[in-house]
């Protein structure tokens, strides 16, 4: 190919007699193709240097190639440069690259980067435009967008928009992507704003995918004020063979001389794997250094692996590591199969002796679970086969000073005390029998496994209002068969008198109080009469509520009492 460049200089009457320059580029082709001649012109005034860069192209085999024009104007000591547009295409491809236009005023340097694209084999590729405006001594640069695609692929890269004011340097890094073989890849936009001598950098997002892969990388958003350096690290991912990989967004805000860094997440997956890296959120104030460490993971063979993020808040130079609402850690949920699932945080359920409990949902099938942060690290070692009457421990994670437990969250369900309040009247004896039979079995199972609940009460029993199925929850007071202190609403008389108790008799006392409250709607009083209930019901209550713990019925024999065995409620 032969290139001819002709420079033509003409004198043009402008203010202060400033020359005008026209730069032209010609190209030659083979195989009987037309020759294209592209010119760029510029005008300037008041000591202005303006350069418009030309574009050159070559094409072969019946190709129509159009390169759009570049136009610019500037005034008052402005240097404006608009980068070139280059493209190549083959095999009956129509490629059009849209023009770039910009204007600036008042000592502004504005540069709009180029758009480059290539396409092959009847491919439609659209690259969104980049637009920007700036005022008052602002340097604004918007990086380029590059993409390539092959074999009937539609790839769209969203636009980048930004604005800044008052001596701000703002740089938005580029987005690069490639795709092959019927792949739809979308990279979300990056938006940012900054004020008052702020350096803000948003790192690039890079991804590649092959063979029917949908990969989406979420956007990164950030804002900062007052001499803040904020950096958000990049997210990188690769996937192969029918893989859906999603990397969630990172959001952060900072104020007052804060350095906030959010580390990157890296992941790889293969062979029908869904891998999700959960987002990290943080906020900090008053000269606080907050760091959220990165998470790495790998998975294979139909495994869904979720790498859990950390959330924290801090103030007044104090690090925050406590597990409250703002420091929830979403944990890996492992069901009774090889497949693992991703959790999405919803809200805090409450706090108790067990720790802080959060509601969560399995993103795959909508399974409702609970995430509990507990400092009772010994109890979780007793992971046993499932019992329907006890809340199921699905998974746990060991931390330096606490456990994070993933628990079953039955839906629908409510605390037993709220169930009774909604009845407006005392429940019937047959309903109490159904509830107590399940509660008794749960208490016996705990005892057989060497763990006593120690806080059996209405608030720690969930009930399904439709089926009357109950589950014992909140093992925060759980301990082994020893003499110790006990803090409970249903505490036995020996604890009030001596400060000590035995586990089994104390459990029986709690069960007796529970049955009495179910039948009478209140706690036992001396003048309370049980004459309206059957003889077996009155007898089991009396056997559980003996003042002397040695005179109480044995826990293992409780389910064999005539009230459970003789009546026909079930």
TrEMBL record:
UniProt enzyme class: transferase
ATP-binding recorded as keyword: yes
Reactions accelerated catalytically: L-threonyl-[protein] + ATP = O-phospho-L-threonyl-[protein] + ADP + H(+); L-seryl-[protein] + ATP = O-phospho-L-seryl-[protein] + ADP + H(+)
Pfam families listed in its UniProt record: Pkinase (PF00069)
Residue ranges of every copy of the Protein kinase domain listed in the record: 343-564
UniProt keyword ATP-binding, yes or no: yes
Molecular-function annotations in GO: ATP binding; protein serine/threonine kinase activity
Record's keyword terms, sorted: ATP-binding, Kinase, Nucleotide-binding, Serine/threonine-protein kinase, Signal, Transferase
SUPFAM superfamilies from the UniProt entry: ARM repeat, Protein kinase-like (PK-like)
EC number: 2.7.11.1
PROSITE patterns: PROTEIN_KINASE_DOM (PS50011), PROTEIN_KINASE_ST (PS00108)
GO CC term, one of those recorded: cytoplasm
Span of the signal peptide: 1-25
Family, as annotated: Belongs to the protein kinase superfamily. CAMK Ser/Thr protein kinase family. PIM subfamily.
Name under which the protein is recorded: non-specific serine/threonine protein kinase
Species: Sinocyclocheilus rhinocerous
